[in-house]
Amino acid sequence: MGRVAYARIAPNEDLVQGVEKLCLAEGFRHAFVRGGLGSLIDASLGLRDGGYQQVAGPAVEVVSIAGEVRSGPDGAPVAALAGIVADTQGNVYGGPFLAGWNPVCVTFEVTLEEWLPDTETAA
C-alpha cells in the first residue's frame, strides 16, 4: 500500500469523475476508495440487466461507498465505484455508480488509499 489522501469533491461535480480527478491530482495510478461522506443531487446506479436506476433527489444520501481506481489503457485513472444510497423518503438502493450521472449535492468527502502493484514496487 502507498499513500492515503483525504479529499473533497465540489458541488455539481460527478462523483465517479471527481474520484478519477483526485487520483490524477495525487499521482495515484491505482487506488482503493476506502470510504466517503456526502450527498448527491440525484443518483444513477447500474442494474444487473445492464440498465440503470435513477434515484431522484435532491440530497440523495450516500450511506456507503467502496471501489477502486485503475489506470486505463491510455494511463488515465478509471474508477469503478459501488455503494448504497437513500432517497428523501428513506428508501434504500444499491449498485455501481454510473460515471457522469451522479452530481455531488453540497460536498463529498472521500478517502483514497494508493495501491502499488508488485510490478511497480519492484522498480
UniProtKB/TrEMBL annotation:
InterPro entries, sorted: PPC_dom (IPR005175)
Gene Ontology molecular function, alphabetical: DNA binding
Domain of life according to the entry: Bacteria
SUPFAM superfamilies: AF0104/ALDC/Ptd012-like
Residue ranges annotated for the PPC domain, each copy included: 1-123
Residues in the signal sequence: none
Keywords carried by this UniProt record: DNA-binding
Membrane-spanning ranges: none
Protein name stated in the entry: DNA-binding protein
